[in-house]
Fold this sequence. Notes:
alpha+beta; 1 helix
Amino acid sequence: MKSFIAPAAAMLICLLGELAAVAPAHAQAVDTCVYERDTVTVSGEVHRKHRKGAPDDEDSYLRGRTDTAIILKLQHALCVMLPDDVNLALRPRRIQELQLVTDERLPRSSERIRRFEGTVLLDQDGSHQRPVLLEIKQTDEGNKPVRKQR
């Protein structure tokens, strides 16, 4: 019996050591995620996306209209704490695009990298084209051309 306990104890200690090494990495990944109402600075390409509402669309704003959104394709993925679909608990998600919102005139589409500072918002009612929004506070006109991958 003792010959079984020693290897089992060694294996348990090894597993606990592995879990202890992974836990701080997971906590650190969550700490670097942003939450709704956090201010961030992001950069990427600006694109326009069009969405046509069906005549019988439940959203009365979209019914029979075309909705145009300004989408920022991020240069680097952004970790955002988003609610999951089941119990609405916040979970870290990496996003590649977000929708820009502002009261000012929205920027044109461009293949140049642009930088924006703003407040992260979540699309609460599904009326936007992306689940994560950025309410723009400051814009930096970029002039660095994007290299096209072949």
